[in-house]
Design a protein that fits this description.
pyruvate; Glucose Permease (Domain IIA); alpha+beta; about 425 residues
């Protein structure tokens, strides 16, 4: 059955709370965003990097045709996008570069661009658009400008106690704000920007380290819900299936071949961060940093095998480890029986800004901070060499799994 003849989905399972499950809430949001974008377009010049994105699309016949067709396919399938042309989409993207998310008790939308692109990106003509290297390079420039706005003082518009503010009573409860370093007596509770708030830090002692002296106890690198555990992982795979393979070569990309080959036949653990989670990364083991680098990639690409599925974008998380923008940190463990551990922190959408705080040659203690995600959806994985892991604390299936706290016991080595 073609996308044109399907009944549009009214619900879509969303891991992490980045977008609401209810499509009607997203439709209302997209329409309101489009209304505000029209107002901005009538009174303000378009941001230069957004104009560059528009010029790329208009100047590349295949890219323009694929994106136009993806928009048409989404509309023909019954989805209300808030726009019907590339020009209208560009104006909304321009507006988003000055947008900071408000809090909402009923329909919280953390990722406005993901909400806009939700359906074109999983239409038949959309897959090529969102994998196109030139398109992603220009999109990265747009996201960097937005990240700059979110790192500045004008992004604090919702860091207050109003009903749509992040310090209203309901938001405080959902965030567990009392666990974090902040001062309610200071303007904006002491946060200099939206990104400062998003990357807020725990108070000392809020997340104690499990078995600091026992090298066999591996701890959770992020505050994240389990997504997958796999053993016997391969060096590479030739195609993507619905049960998505993990290909070490693609995930580590810039690492030397011999380093990636160390993990063939090993184990991988993947988990996802929710909109309300702590977004900093910590070392799962003690050791010396062997590699620390960023990989440019896609921002809104999902796997065709998931299609227009209620859980499709969630179930593309294995795929994103090999194609999305990410940070790779490889730790040479102090315990030689563990060998090396690859930590991969993946930006799944929006700004996808992966900030690395460590460097090759640096020694880190178990539980020490490695870096953080700035604004955006996030997933991460830990990759272990063969025959290292005796067992993980958690095992599939992971339906409705609660987050494993950062620095908590995650796995035990042999």
């Amino acid at each position: 059955m073609t996308s044109e003849s399907k009944k549009p989905l009214e619900q879509r399972r969303r891991l992490g709370g980045w977008l609401p499950d209810n499509e009607a809430e997203l439709v209302a949001f997209r329409k309101e965003l489009a209304r505000r974008a029209r107002q901005r377009a009538a009174s303000a010049p378009r941001t230069h990097v957004v104009d560059e994105l528009r010029a790329l699309i208009e100047g590349d016949t295949v890219l323009r045709m694929n994106l136009s067709r993806a928009i048409d396919q989404a509309q023909s399938a019954g989805y209300e996008l808030g726009y019907s042309t590339i020009g209208e989409l560009i104006d909304i993207i321009d507006y988003v570069t000055t947008y900071a998310p408000p809090f909402s008790e009923s329909s919280l939308i953390h990722c406005p661009l993901n909400a806009l692109l939700d359906w074109p990106m999983c239409m038949p003509s959309g897959y090529a658009v969102f994998r196109d290297p030139a398109f992603n390079a220009r999109l990265k420039r747009v996201l960097n400008v937005w990240c700059g706005f979110l790192s500045g003082p004008h992004s604090r518009m919702h860091l207050n106690g109003s009903p749509d503010g992040w310090f209203c009573e309901e938001a405080q409860q959902r965030l567990g704000i009392s666990q974090f370093l902040c001062d309610p007596h200071e303007p904006h509770w002491g946060f200099a920007s939206w990104n400062s708030f998003f990357t807020r830090q725990f108070k000392p002692g809020a997340r104690p380290l499990a078995e600091a002296a026992d090298s066999k106890i591996i701890v959770s690198a992020c505050e994240a819900s389990p997504y997958e555990v796999r053993h016997g992982i391969r060096f590479e795979d030739s195609f993507w299936l619905k049960s998505q393979p993990y290909s070490v070569r693609e995930i580590l990309e810039r690492s030397p071949r011999e380093l990636a080959e160390r993990f063939v036949g090993g184990s991988i653990y993947q988990a996802f961060l929710s909109a309300f989670n702590y977004h900093r990364w910590h070392a799962p083991v003690a050791g010396t940093i062997r590699e620390a680098y960023q990989v440019d990639g896609t921002y809104y690409s999902d796997a065709e095998s998931e299609g227009e599925d209620p859980g499709g974008l969630n179930d593309s998380q294995g795929y994103t480890t090999a194609v999305a923008a990410r940070a790779v940190i490889v730790i040479d463990c102090d315990d030689p029986a563990i060998g090396q551990v690859a930590c991969v922190f993946v930006g799944m959408a929006e700004v996808s800004s992966c900030m690395i705080d460590v460097f090759p040659g640096q020694h880190v203690s178990k539980g020490e901070e490695l870096g953080f995600f700035q604004y955006g959806g996030s997933t991460y994985c830990l990759i272990f060499e063969p025959d290292v892991i005796r067992g993980f604390v958690v095992q599939p299936p992971f339906d409705n799994a609660q987050p494993i706290r950062v620095n908590a016991h995650l796995a035990t080595a042999r």
